[in-house]
Amino acid sequence: MKRIILLTLAILIFTTQTAFAVNYPHTGYCTGNYVRLRDNPGTEDTEVLEGRLFDGNLVILLDEVFVDGDKWYEIDYPFGEGTAWIFGKYVEIYEDEIETIPEYRFILQVYQDFGTKPEKAKSIFGKPKKSSKRTFYWEPAGRNVEEETLEYPKLTLNYIDGRLQGVEITGKGSNLRFGKIRVGDDTSKLQEEFGEPAEKYDNSWEYEIAGGLIFEFYIRNGEIYKMSYGERMD
Fold it and tell me: CB under 8 Å to 188, separation ≥6 — which residues?
């Protein structure tokens, strides 16, 4: 019979040199190719789910357990609703200092709300009103990559190389949000949630959560009429 040792949400991960605390949710990336995802941790009495992960794929880590001495991570399932489990051998946890700043929770929420992959977005929002793909040379990657854009009413999602790169939300009357902020909210609520912007223009406020990770809110008559998230590519 399997022994599953549940860990707390904040645990110590020991490396060969240092120990650091991991608070979930947290980001990481896959280090293998054609890595299987399962409905439960372990390989016995579990089912393999659709979709495979590849080297470098972003994963949102939600929790971890040990099964017979092997670590398994629960992740936000990238290809559909709910969660999945991945063998810890194929996961590297990001140890960047940006993960520790309180504002980073907005980025994690974007990944979970809109999907790190196009497949996840389609499972959340259904079939897009319009979709398009193109291949182009992307300098940060140093190679040709595929860009996929999904358009829904009041929502546009952009993916590069299968990873969420941009979100744009327009129009009042939807539950789409960044943190607690929706289109139609006034700037005082925006300040309460996000604080003072890094850049403040006549018609937009820009927040740089970490190097190259940008939230931008477009303002008209003291209200937000459009908002976007994107990873700066320069």
Answer: none
